[in-house]
TrEMBL record:
Name assigned to this protein: Endonuclease III
Biased composition (Low complexity): 7-33
Residue numbers binding [4Fe-4S] cluster: 251, 258, 261, 267
InterPro entries referenced in this protein's UniProt entry, alphabetically: DNA_glycosylase, Endonuclease-III-like_CS2, Endonuclease3_FeS-loop_motif, Endouclease-III_FeS-bd_BS, HhH-GPD_domain, HhH_base_excis_C, HhH_motif, Nth
Enzyme Commission code: 4.2.99.18
Domain HhH-GPD: from-to ranges: 102-249
GO molecular function terms attached to this record: 4 iron, 4 sulfur cluster binding; class I DNA-(apurinic or apyrimidinic site) endonuclease activity; DNA binding; DNA N-glycosylase activity; metal ion binding
GO biological process: base-excision repair, AP site formation
Annotated cofactor note: Binds 1 [4Fe-4S] cluster.
Family named by the database record: Belongs to the Nth/MutY family.
Entry function: DNA repair enzyme that has both DNA N-glycosylase activity and AP-lyase activity. The DNA N-glycosylase activity releases various damaged pyrimidines from DNA by cleaving the N-glycosidic bond, leaving an AP (apurinic/apyrimidinic) site. The AP-lyase activity cleaves the phosphodiester bond 3' to the AP site by a beta-elimination, leaving a 3'-terminal unsaturated sugar and a product with a terminal 5'-phosphate.
Amino acid sequence: MKKTASTKKTASAKKAVPAKKAAPAKKAPAAKKITVAPKKATARIKGAAPAKTVVHPPSGESRTALVRRARRINRELAEVYPYAHPELDFTNPFQLVVATVLSAQTTDLRVNQTTPALFAKYPTPEDLAAANPEEVEEILRPCGFFRAKTKSVIGLSRALVADFGGEVPGRLEDLVKLPGVGRKTAFVVLGNAFGRPGITVDTHFQRLVRRWQWTAETDPDKIEAAVGALFPKSDWTDLSHHVIWHGRRICHARKPACGACPIAPLCPAYGEGETDPEKAKKLLKYEKGGFPGQRLNPPQAYLDAGGEPAPPLRAG
């Protein structure tokens, strides 16, 4: 059969139409590498650097799981800081309440450098109540806000003499009536001078419990209530010491030393700070002869960072 002209034309037209190229397949985005905290950060300080991404926070953590994780963190910190204690030097409740009032907006080290002269000249509430404010101001000048602090310590001394016979009261409701004494100061005194449990919600405590997702509260009183509900009352005072010591030494505000942190596997905020072990070691805060306030051997993380066991700093 002969092909007609129209058939030939149609065939040639078909040949002239180029075939459409298939659209290139879109490349799938590279899977994001998720890294978990090292199983034991302190054990990895001398090893290879871990990867540097943030651990995802607990998703849908139940109340029971939160309580278990919070208590495990406290147990881990108790092993790292077995001798955690108030880092203010004191020998009696009066010295502790005065030192705690003076510690506002300054360091415990600065207070400890200042109070020996203050207590040598004014050893009792009666002495400080009758003091010349200008002379007290001169002693307290290194602490900062020395005029306001002078007014507070003289005022609380006068209140102790007038209302409590020169003795520091052992009840929260009485302590908070003293000039310059709030709940935080009161719980420091109750827990460490009278052995009555209390949670000290200072700036370190607030920062860490939010990083650990124990609570999202920002008001100190609400933080105190929320965290207190996670632990037996008997644990409150030691818990405060453990958290505050950790905040001062490892879990800093601006750049936490995540790579040297003993509770890294339990921390939802792991990776906010330096995760490289060698670099993290350099962020640990300690003083010559040991890290601040430590009376006996420091944990291994601090020895690795170049610290040395410290001699006893004080009794009590």
